[in-house]
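Hi everyone,

Forwarding the result from last night's run.
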Amino acid sequence: MTDEEFMRDVLQRIATGPTLSKDLTREDATRAMQIILDGRADEVQAGIFLIALRMKRETDDELAGILAAINSGLSPQPVQVEHLLTIVDPYDGYLRGTPAAPFLPAVLAACGLRVLTHGLASMGPKFGATHQRVLQASGYRLPQSMSDVAQALEDDEQGWSYVSQDVLAPKLANLVDLRTRIVKRPCLTTIEVAANAIQPTVASHLITGFVHKPYPPVYAALAAEGGYASSIMVRGVEGGVVPSLTQAARFFTSDDGVSLTQVDIEPSMVGIERTERAVPLPTSLRNDTVRSVKAPENPFAGELASYASEQGLQALAGEAGYTRDSLVYAGAVILLARGVNDTLEAAADTVRHAIDSGAALQHFNKALL
């Protein structure tokens, strides 16, 4: 069967309404996604494929198959570190609060971990302030190759790196324009979290956030399929890895992609008492009309990224506030989940020391232009 015949057959199966559509095998999902990634599919058919799966609701086999196609097209990059943590926040960024997580990898590096994050400068449907925009506003030197990423991770004075999807998974990044025109989130939003091209000497570990209850087992399964030895899923603000600073939260861990362990947490456990669940927006940006402009080149996102940069650098310099609390809380969760500390309180103390000693700022500054 030719590629064209195969795609027609696939669409006839999955795009027949909510009750008549049929599920794809893992193998068929892999082949269809490979055809799309290689640019051998009609763009209209590619869009229908992604939306039809979303409307039908993707099966575990379909998600695994698409991930297999994505990862098979990546160029493996060995890195001489034993364990690597990959932290992935939503690719479409933040609009309702000021992001703190872009500064988390440097904090964790100061705690002795090696940390990778990845994303894009802008992605729908929110087109919010992303890790990349915040880091660039801070003077971050974007790696131009996977070897640049490996070098940063191996550097004891840095120990962390961000990498754009343009470098990590260029074929997937080529679909950004198509995804923008689709408007709604396709299944790729969930799957790209588990893209895995960096190969440490012992094991990789995936950390991501969620809001809705069904997602932890989905992410755990994708992590295992993607070659991660373990996964941590945090119920965080706007789907990120920073828990609410005002409400009880939870995180899940999995070592096999099937069984999950739930841990309940509260900000008071690490001495945090706040009235806002995340780093508040500045007064100048608390305009719902501006904030609702969910479109490419959203000016609100750029302004928020600049403000997040200011707040993040101040927090790394030891200034108290919402951003520092966010870094302490999220960092403590990760240290506890990875077994660095036995209690959340002790983990928070470890993070605070990394910040107050100036080590976190030094690890961040090593990556600047």
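Residues 299-316 form the longest helix (18 residues).

Cheers,
N.
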